[in-house]
Amino acid sequence: MTILEKARAGEITAEMIYVAEKEGLAPELIRQGVATGEIVILKSARPNINPVAVGKGLFTKVSASVGMYEVDDTIAGEMAKIDQAIKAKADTLMDLSVRGPIDAMRETVLSTVDRPVGTLPLYQTLAMAQEKYGTALDMTADDMFAMMEKHAAEGVSFLALHCGTTMDVINRAKEEGRIDPLVSYGGSHLIGWMIHNHCENPFFTQYDRVLEICKKYDVVLSFADGMRPGCIADSLDGAQVHELVILGGLVKKARAAGVQVMVKGPGHVPLDQIQTTVQLQKQLCGGAPYFVFGCLPTDSGAGMDHVTGAIGGAIAAYYGADFLCYVTPAEHIGMPSAEDVYLGVMASRIAAHAGDVGKGHPAAIAWDLEMSHARRELNWGRQMELAIDTETATKVWKDRSTNFASECSMCGDFCAMKIVGKYLRDENQEVRNER
């Protein structure tokens, strides 16, 4: 039985107990969420990888993507980025390598990290086909499924597949006259293969085969969106919504087969459409966990898109998104450095926490309240401990404050916390008595 089937049967598994403790919830609540499909548990047969739960009522999670992309990229270089992602406390990782020793890269990641790893098997299938046939256009459906099973068998926790990118959706996109037709790397290559070979998407026509593999290895199916909007002008167009409608039907089939499923979404979305985007996904996909890239509410943040993504991510999390794929400062202009990875994760973690506070998550609210008390008491050590980015906060404080024991450098001797706070706390009773 898969973990979804066990949850439906009323069984509380070891993974449910583990994530319940991390979330501060009763294991039965986790079981119920898994049974309805509103929670998924990312896990692995690898003993070094600890499970992570994603979904309704839980902390919003953050994922960091790495992988060999440029000709001179190395495993060591990508592992340095992973080290920074882990230092910044990313909840999960995605290895999206498209070239080089991809098998060795994945094995290195899976054997060394302690958190779930996701992949997009089509990337390696394209690289393999290029080497095997001389062109990726000659890859076969069997090649795609063989690679998918290979990744699942090796212990990957979630597999990203473009199951809802059909010829009807592609034609709809053509009719829409998009400004940026395709920005999904995997989606664009799959669509190019479909058009060249005059055939439908195998992940859609042979969806039962997808589910068989996911069920066999009890891996979470993560629906990738081939029609992710690449600019805010294309947000919520017919092609994007059409694909989402199809994914909603595929979610139901996956659950019926005992397979956990989540849905990945946009992308570039203006502020006024983020709520609609999230709620539409939740409605059409039966409350399946929503894994959003960004959201990016402006197209003009190049060089600072970790900030852009944090703005949209916080709003998306507030309205019900469950999982944020980080965005780095290098998004749109180059491959991220290790420092970019750290900044991207931190920005997304701040966004996730802000969303959790807005949603009323008790632990998130308690965290901020404790920080408020620490500030009131000028307890600098505790403030540094409570900061989401403790290292950066501590460095700035020590570099720029003149008196570590009292006020900060912003106001110095005129610290409002110290002067007015003392008056309000210590003399309130005296003031009331005088009245």
From TrEMBL:
What is the top-level taxon of the source organism?
Bacteria
Q: InterPro entries, from UniProt?
A: ThiC/Bza_core_dom, ThiC/BzaA/B
Names of required cofactors: [4Fe-4S] cluster
GO molecular function, a single term? phosphomethylpyrimidine synthase activity
Q: Which keywords accompany this UniProt record? A: 4Fe-4S, Iron, Iron-sulfur, Lyase, Metal-binding, S-adenosyl-L-methionine, Zinc
This enzyme's EC code(s) = 4.1.99.17
Give yes or no: UniProt keyword Metal-binding: yes
What top-tier enzyme class does this entry carry?
lyase
Which Pfam families does the record match to this protein?
ThiC_Rad_SAM
PANTHER family noted in UniProt: PHOSPHOMETHYLPYRIMIDINE SYNTHASE, CHLOROPLASTIC, THIAMINE BIOSYNTHESIS PROTEIN THIC
Q: What is this protein called?
A: Phosphomethylpyrimidine synthase
Q: Which organism is it from?
A: Acetobacterium wieringae
